[in-house]
């Protein structure tokens, strides 16, 4: 797994670091702006940052249109879905829930996204999940239950905590819908998602009587949006989805609570409850099971024609170029419609865009 899938795994892990900082960094800004205005700035920061990156690539002569697959009309339903769930519902729900939730607790509750992403990937989209991953997710879920218990003996649930879990569910839907766009140019996807949802939420904020915060707070919110919510994190996560599928990429985000707790302790000087020391080894075991999972068996590739960013140095892209196809760039990466012949073989793989086959039970 660490050879062929090193890059997408690294993308998922860096995403986990950034997501870990989302709750504590955002909590620092609460009070300086209304919740809707703050959510709008977060989304606009992610989308506008991605747009600037895309424009920089065009003007620098990298010819992104020959490296990444463009959006197509058939992608519109998936774009609407990720904009609604990941760009609008998730950040608004999170920011409404954060004031009544300690930063460390919120960071740990966000770990539910990995579990929800995998459940949706398996139940709705038919993505195969091994017993090892189920065991890993069980460990992580058990650790989250311990970590979110009320130290006084209660069940540890509140409306704010349920709001965090609902946020995770929205992001899980976003992750699975985003896999259907993972072959497309991630910067264009994120630009549409962030700017579209941010504009809608900003209009709602104005309708609710909220005003934009002072410039330093607005800039900070947009920067956090790009780094931790939908800009850089979405770029990295879409690249991870492309390589290892929604279930695996989402599961790797299980390490984000470790970083969330670290940032929370650094910023708010919070001391974890006693349950933290019980849950820590359980969650670490689950994360280790996820990261080291391997999967190999004889599988069939049906003949197909599609387009996405690819190289010619793997098992599935040894095709010849036709007249009019783009030339290779310095990294050998490019994009154009290409055909795959039907084949049956065996090698270690993940449910990426070439391995969404059924499994015998």
Describe the structure.
This protein has 361 residues and is mostly helical. The chain has a domain at 6-114 and 156-243 and 256-269. The chain is 61% helix and 7% strand. The protein has a two-stranded antiparallel sheet. The protein has a two-stranded antiparallel ribbon with strand order 2-3. The longest helix has 25 residues, at 35-59. The radius of gyration is 21 Å and the shape is globular. The two termini are 23 Å apart. The model is unreliable at 59-64 (pLDDT under 50). It holds the Pfam family EamA. It is a multi-pass membrane protein. Residues 299-324 have a biased composition (Basic and acidic residues).
SSE topology:
Blueprint: H1 6-20, H2 22-29, H3 35-59, H4 64-67, H5 76-97, H6 103-109, H7 112-123, H8 131-147, H9 159-179, H10 186-207, H11 215-229, H12 232-252, H13 256-268, H14 275-291, E1 296-301, E2 304-310, E3 334-340, E4 343-348
Antiparallel strand pairs: 1-4, 2-3
């Amino acid at each position: 797994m660490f050879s062929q899938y090193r890059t997408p795994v690294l993308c998922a892990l860096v995403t986990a670091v950034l997501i870990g900082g989302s709750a504590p960094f955002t909590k620092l800004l609460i009070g300086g702006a209304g919740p809707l205005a703050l959510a709008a700035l977060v989304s606009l920061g992610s989308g506008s940052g991605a747009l600037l990156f895309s424009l920089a690539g065009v003007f620098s002569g990298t010819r992104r249109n020959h490296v990444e697959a463009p959006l197509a009309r058939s992608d519109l339903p998936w774009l609407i879905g990720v904009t609604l769930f990941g760009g609008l519902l998730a950040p608004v729900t999170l920011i409404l829930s954060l004031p009544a939730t300690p930063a460390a607790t919120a960071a740990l509750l966000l770990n539910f996204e990995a579990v929800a992403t995998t459940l949706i990937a398996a139940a709705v989209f038919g993505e195969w999940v091994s017993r090892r991953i189920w065991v890993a997710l069980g460990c992580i879920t058990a650790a989250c239950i311990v970590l979110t218990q009320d130290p006084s003996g209660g069940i540890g649930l509140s409306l704010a905590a349920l709001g965090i879990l609902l946020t995770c569910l929205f992001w899980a839907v976003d992750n699975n819908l985003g896999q259907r766009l993972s072959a497309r140019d991630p910067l264009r996807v994120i630009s549409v998602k962030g700017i579209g949802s941010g504009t809608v939420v900003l209009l709602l904020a104005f309708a609710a009587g909220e005003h934009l915060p002072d410039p330093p707070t607005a800039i900070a919110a947009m920067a956090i949006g790009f780094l931790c919510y939908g800009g850089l994190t979405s770029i990295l996560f879409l690249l991870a989805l492309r390589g290892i599928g929604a279930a695996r990429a989402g599961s790797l985000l299980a390490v984000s609570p470790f970083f969330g707790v670290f940032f929370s302790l650094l910023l708010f000087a919070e001391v974890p409850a006693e349950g933290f020391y019980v849950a820590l080894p359980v969650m670490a075991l689950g994360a280790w099971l996820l990261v080291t999972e391997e999967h190999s068996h004889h599988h069939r590739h049906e003949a197909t024609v599609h387009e996405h960013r690819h190289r010619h140095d793997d098992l599935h892209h040894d095709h010849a170029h036709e007249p009019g196809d783009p030339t290779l760039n310095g990294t050998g990466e490019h994009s154009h419609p290409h055909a795959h012949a039907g084949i049956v073989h065996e090698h270690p793989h993940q449910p990426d865009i070439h391995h969404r086959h059924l499994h015998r039970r």
